[in-house]
Structures are given as C-alpha cells and as structure tokens.
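Lecture 7 notes: from sequence to structure.

We start with a single chain of 355 residues. Read the sequence below before looking at the structure.
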Amino acid sequence: MRDSIQRIYGALLTPSKLPDQIHLSQEELVEHIIHDEHFQTYPPARSYQLKFWKHIVEKIELANEEADERIYERHISLLSQGAPSPFDYMNGPPAPSYITRFWNAPSSESNVRTSRRSIALLESRTTIEDGTTGMRTWRASLILAEWLIRRPEIVQKKRVLELGSGVGFLGILIAQLDGMRKSKLDETHSGLRGVPSLALTDVNRTVLERCENNISLPPNWFDATSLDRKESLKAQLEEINAEVIIGADIVYDLDLIHPLIETLGMALSAGSVSPQPYRREGLIALCARSEETLSRFIQAADSRGLDLRSEEWGSLGDDIFDDGWGGESQSSVRLFTVTLRQSRGTTQKILHSIS
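Now the structure, written as tokens:
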C-alpha cells in the first residue's frame, strides 16, 4: 500500500487512482505521506495537496468511518491558506512543483540490486515556461526510463551522453542504475575507458540551470554511506585507481561531512597502486568559515582511520588568480593532506590545536 500511495502522491497523479479502500488505510496515509520526511522537504504543489486530501476526506465520510484527526488537521491547514480559484490562471502560470517518482529495480536482473529508488525534481506544471517545453518531464522520457530499468546493461559501466536532458529525470535515473551494480567493473577495460561517465546537455540555459539544481537535490545523490551502494562505489573507485584525490571547498555542510569522509576513505584504500610501496593521498583545501564544521571534519576523519596533516601555504602570493571577492584571505584557507592511518597521533594533534 505504501508504494501505491506514495507513487500517486509524489507524481501528482489524480487521487482517483488511489485504491477504493483507501479510507481503511488512514494510518498509512499519516505515516507515509504526512509524517514522511521526504514529502515534508519536497512537497507537491499546495493545490494538488488540497485536491488529494479533499478526496481522502470525502472517501472517509462516504464510508461513515471516523477520520484520523491528523488527516483532518492537514486538510484544514491547507484550506486555511486559501482555496484555489478557477481564475488563478489570470495571475500567471502555476508555480513549479516538486514531483517525486519512485521506482524499483526488477529482481530478475542479476546484476542489479532489488531496491526502491526515488527521483525528486522541481518541474513546471505548464506546457511552456520561459519559452521552452524543457522544464518538465514528458511521456517519452518515462517510457524510455522503464525500458532502461529492464535493460540496465545498456547504460551501466558506459560513457553516456544525453541530448535535450531537460530537468534531469533520465540522467538521474541512469546514474542511479549505474550506482546499483553489484559486480566489479569490467576488468577488460583499461585506464579511463572503464570509468563510467554521464553528460547531460540542452540548448536552453534556463533548462540547464534547473537540471543542475535538480541533480543536486539530496534524494538524487549517490550516498556513499548506504550499505547497498558501497559495493558499487568501491568497484568504481578501484577501476579509477586514483593515486591522488583532490577537493576544494567541499567541507561546508555538516550533513555532507560523513559521506565525504566515507568516500575519501574508500578512495584511499581502493585498488592497488604501483610501484609499491606507494601511499596514495588526498589534498583537501577548505575555507575555515565555521570552527564547528572544521572540527567535525577532523573528528570524522579520525573516526574513519584517516590521518590529516595540516600543510603550510608558504609564500604564495595573489598574483596568479584573483577571484575578485576580497572576502577571504589566503590565511583563512586550510590545506590538509589525507592518508590512511599508519599510526595514531597526527589527526589528534590537529584536533588539540583547534580546541
């Protein structure tokens, strides 16, 4: 029941598609819609929510059932914000809405884990917005997506180019399919030939901006800390077999520190580097804007078994690159060399120095 309820609600489908006995599933409606963290963060348009809960309340009343007060509260709360008018179109097109599409990998595919996935997009609710039709997902994309879900080998481990990517639905799906591989990357590839990549393109700059924003939504991310995805990420990192891992200004959000450190740890320990003995290393440059964020980053690295060594910038000047911002000096940027721990102490010393 959860799947059908969330699929309908997330995709803004007509509530009439709900099961006839939906009034008997009030607890599921509360748990999987009202209290669901995803829908709290990425809710459908308010006009759709009104239509959805009106349908539910009517179903409950027609069945002479006692309604859960949380359902009534949600409906009343939406009504209190004003009911939509048939003349609203005169004030302009409806605002974009979050649309979430859920899908399951078929269990018949031996090279794909059976797992429920979601794709959340901010989409237009009109045919044309800003002079383009690319701000929403169209039927052909949905059909092609279903086809690829049943034939994931077409895009897995491949370098894929999508033309006219629109708001990013197909691209995100392809990335999720590739992230669900159980097997190691094809060992017959060498160098970058075996490294999957995905390029999304469009002719409209506004569409590309919307696409980029949608790709960055957390529900669409590849979560390195998720147990069912670590195996796939590990295989990709082993294929890349990087000797140096670099990153700049990627430590800015407390929620991202754990997956970042987990990915760093996997990249530093993946594959083999020759000639031996060679210790691969990471170079992370970050702006020390928040002492808490910096401290959490260092603590997370220590817990993961990574050693951080603070590097000195030396006599670097500002004569090569000038970003024109003027707000952050060289001294506010910290540089760390990251390696797998050989002996304890380095990271602890850094922690002590900032405490």
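The longest helix spans residues 46-62. Keep this in mind for problem set 3.
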